[in-house]
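Sequence in, structure out. Go.
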Amino acid sequence: MMFHMRLADAIRTRIFRLIFGWRFAAFGRGCRIVRPVAIEGPENIHLGDRVYIAAQSCLAAPRSDEGTCRLRIGEGSQIGRFNHIYATKSVELGRKVLTANGVYISDNLHGYRDPETPVADQPLVQLGPTVIGDGSWIGHNACVIGVRVGKQCVIGANAVVLRDLPDYSVAVGAPARIVRRYDVETKAWRPTSEDGSFVLPDGV
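Output:
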C-alpha cells in the first residue's frame, strides 16, 4: 500500500512540475511539491534545487500594493505536511532547512487595533523580513513570524517565535525563549538565560 502511495505521489509531482513549474520565479532541479493545498503568487516564489514540499502545504506570495513580494526556499530544504508559508513582502528559508508538520511561517499579522471592527476586516500588519538560516530545524506546529532565525537553530514543538534568534540557538515556548546555544569556544551546547547569554556553572 505504501509503495503505491509513493508511486502515485511521484507521478503527481512530475505532472505538477510539467504543468505549473514554469509559472514559478524559480523551480530548481529535483524540486518536488506533493499535493499542495494552495499555491498563490507562484511568479514570486523561488525554489532551489532538491526542495521538497510535503502534502497538504500552502505556499503564498501574492502581489502587494506595497511593492515586490518574494518567498524563497533554499537548496535541499524539506518542508513538512500541512505547512503554511505566507509572504506579503519577504520570507526566506536558507539551505537545508527542515520543518515538521503544521509549521506556520509568515512576515505579517492580522491587524486588531480597532476593537469595533472585526479582525477579518482590518488590514494586515506588515512586519520585517522573515529569515530562517541554513540548516535550521522547525518543530511540530511551531510559528515563526516576522523575525530572523540564525543558522543551525532548533525551534521546539508548538513554539511561537516573535523575536530574532542568533545562530546555534535552541528556543522553546510561546513566546519562544532561548534555552540553549552552541558555544564555539568550548564546542558544546550550553544552557542560557532567556536573552541567550550563557549560564555560568555553579560556583563560578
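Check: The CA atoms of residues 193 and 199 lie 6 Å apart. The chain has a mean pLDDT of 90.
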